[in-house]
Amino acid sequence: MTQNKIIDLRSDTVTKPTKAMRKAIANAEVGDDMYGEDPTVLELEEEIANLLGKEKALFLPTGSMANQIAIKAQTQPGDDIFVGQNAHNWMFESGATGFISSVQITVLPGDGRYDANAVRTHYKPDNVNFAPTTLISIENTHNVSGGVTWDRKEVQKVLEAADELDLSKHLDGARLWNASTYYNVPLDELTKGFDTVSVCLSKGLGAPVGSLLAGNEQVMKKAYRLRRILGGSMRQAGIMAAGGLYAIRNHREKIQDDHENAQLLALGLNKIDGFSVDIIKTQTNMVILDITDPNVSTQQLVAEAKKEGLLFLSLSDKRIRLVTHLDVSREDCIRALDILSKISNKALVYS
User: Fold this and answer.
1) What is the pTM of this model?
2) pLDDT, position 162
3) Burial class of residue 191 (count of CB atoms within 10 Å of its CB; 0-12, 13-18, 19+)
């Protein structure tokens, strides 16, 4: 490794609290959140509810818990729900949907994004032979597909189809901040028509922990009890909420820098022999790199890059993911390109 700093592009969850955020956390006014008496948590919940255009929001430890509470609150055991290909609440939440809610999942065709026709085609009515479809879930931005956003007109058509079929609608907006930045629209423009919305504070915003679930009074009353059932009720949680409050007030404008840095990486990687990036799908802070040279594997790249102080994730034998975030500068991205170019050339010479 030629430089001391580690460039960590594995995920936007690896960010560390800034000094200013740590100060806000240290000075947080707290109370017992289980009793509804933590002023910082209440302030965060109110601010998020207003940003998302919903009546209530509930502070939760994780995004997975937010998604699972949303599903449980809007389904009955034996129901069927729709998700997109490789959706987080299908692939990366340890089978919690079946374990907690006892529902069946139908994965709709597409790249994680699906259309209204798929909703109508795969819908199952309340018939003795079927698990009736009762809920759709949209993930925006979509993680596995490389941080892509949903076309706003297509989302509207999907929501209209769901309304026709009397389906509840959940938005997994863990990275909705990125979608809002990409479209340059307020968050509540992207949440209209959804019954529940989850957002994460510890990804693009750089807070150390926490997510929120938002919705109307009725569904959030259920969510509050489900949080207790699942062990998510907290005490002096304002210490954590303070980091989230600081993040939404100070870090949202920095997300544009993450998107620009991802573009820099994507364009640079596309110029390296043996690498290919779909620039059109590099919309937010994720870069999906395909290795086109048959003699180079992701395992080689991961191992060699780590020696040089560069970290990223292997998605398959020929695909890696690089994620820009608050702790990654433009200079870091330029250095990352230099490292990958050097490793690629070495791999090509000695393969």
Assistant:
1) 0.95
2) 98
3) buried
Phi-psi region for residue 103, left (φ > 0), alpha (ψ -120 to 50) or beta?
A: beta
Question: H or E stretch including 19?
Answer: helix 19-26
Q: What is the mean pLDDT of the chain?
A: 95
- Where are the alpha helices (H) located in 59-193, listed in sequence order? 63-73, 88-91, 96, 116-122, 152-164, 176-183, 187-191
The answer to whether 211 and 89 have CB atoms below 8 angstroms apart is no
Backbone phi, then psi, for 323, in 5-degree steps? -125, 125
| pLDDT of amino acid 4 | 75
- 198-219, pLDDT tens digit by residue? 999 999 999 999 999 999 999 9
For residue 226, count CB atoms less than 10 angstroms from its CB and return exposed for 0-12, middle for 13-18, buried for 19 or more.
buried
Q: Tokens for 45, please give them.
A: 């919940």
| Non-local CB neighbours of 84 within 8 Å, separated by 6+ positions | 107, 108, 110, 111, 112, 113, 114, 137, 138, 139, 142
User: Distance between alpha carbon 318 and the CA centroid of its chain, in Å?
Assistant: 23
Mean pLDDT of 161-166: 98
Q: Which of these, 221, 211, 168, lies nearest to 63 by C-alpha position?
A: 211
CA 127 to chain centre: 34
Q: How far is CA 206 from CA 83, 265, 328, in A?
A: 27, 20, 11
Mean pLDDT of 244-248: 98
Ordered domains of the chain (ranges, CATH): 7-14+254-350 (3.90.1150.10), 31-250 (3.40.640.10)
Q: What is the pLDDT of residue 2?
A: 45
- The pLDDT value recorded for residue 350 is 44
Residue 253, burial from CB neighbour count under 10 angstroms (0-12, 13-18, 19+)? exposed
